[in-house]
Amino acid sequence: MEIGITQAVDQNVARPDNVPADRVFDFDIYRDVPEGTDFHRSWRALMDVVPYPLMWTPHNGGHWVAMRGDVSDVVMSQSDRFSNHTVLVPKDTAGEAYRLIPLSLDPPEHQPFRKLLNDNLGPKPLKAVEQKITDLTVSLIEGFRGKGRCDFMHEFAEQLPVQIFMHIVDLPLADLPKLKHLADQFTRPDGSLTYPEVAQMFRDYLIPVITARRGGDGQDMISRMVNGTVGGRELTDVEAQNICMQVLVGGLDTVVNLLSFTMSYLAEDHDLRRALAADPSRIDDALLEFLRRFPVVSSSREVRHDVDFEGVRLKAGDMVMAPTIVVTLDDAYNDDPLEFRLGRAGRRHSTFGKGSHTCPGAHLARMEMKIVLREWFARIPEFRLADEAGLRFTNGIVGSVKPFILEWDE
Ligand code: HEM
Fold first, then answer.
1. Could you tell me the pTM of the whole model?
2. Residue 313, phi then psi, degrees to nearest 5
């Protein structure tokens, strides 16, 4: 099986002195997943090929990549060695442009900003949104059920989480295509805009929104954040922009992709689909396994000081990518990790991250996924992929399935 990796020959960044030659591999996080495999299997194939806990790639400015679950978790969570100052590669372009709050902050600065997010995304504030998620899910499904087919990503996955999110932040749905395009340029850039251009366009959009909501008594998430306090003071304008931008980027892309991985997998696993249709009480357990089996995020950390780590010398300023994917796919974490197993005992994953930056949107994401599975199976228990050629996948900071059509019999 082609997995898109070789020991590197052409390098677009020269190998620094601290990188041993045998740790260099030709891996590009923004390169498409080769045809004939899928996003997670290509990561696992990479883990099987690279015999080290950390490899180095010359692509995207040159950076390390954790190849084992425990190493990824340590890099994500040990802020005394690995800083959140820059979290995206290439460091000098994407990393610099993505100085968002709170993801780019280390403790102790991180905590008060993080509290602003927790106050808005916990079970209590989200209780009010639950019925809206159910209503929208049902109306989207009913909108295409009679047609016997849907373009799942465009007609459903990109609609539901994103419309709910626009409701939470009280932004008009008409602005959605523009915001989604900008969010995608951070995680899967198509080269049409530079990172500073993306960041500036986001700011140009947000500045009037924030100005209008400052000092008001709005109860939407943006109003509550920009009128909140950190350490007893108001947020500066730039802080307000950066925390709003972070929430938009985090909330617009990830659930879409996890939903698409889940439903495309269900379309192909006939036994699983029929088991859930026959006994919907198993959906809760299936959801836990979907979250374990389909992590999508690969963010990075910046090395604080020169340090010996996993058999190499890391230099201050080096970037280390910590894919959440290698955690779940590590045999030491999950037995036969590629197998989707209902009732799996002792699931271990870092799909929502590890340490103090663990995703504050996890409750919302789980709630949405659960409602979708419940309402979908109640209406369309049997479905399949329309295209026999199968699925295509895109790599990136957030991995994704390319758009696909689902079909069912009336
Ligand atoms: C299935 C869906 C989701 C997945 C898999 C996911 C995954 C992640 C991961 C892995 C991180 C940690 C990144 C790191 O430490 O470098 C993270 C952080 C974050 N996520 Fe999510 N996320 C999801 C949904 C959401 C949603 C719906 C929102 C917003 C409503 C959101 C907002 C954020 C924010 C603001 C952070 C930064 C937190 C901090 O720095 O303290 N995420 N997410």
1. 0.94
2. -95, 110
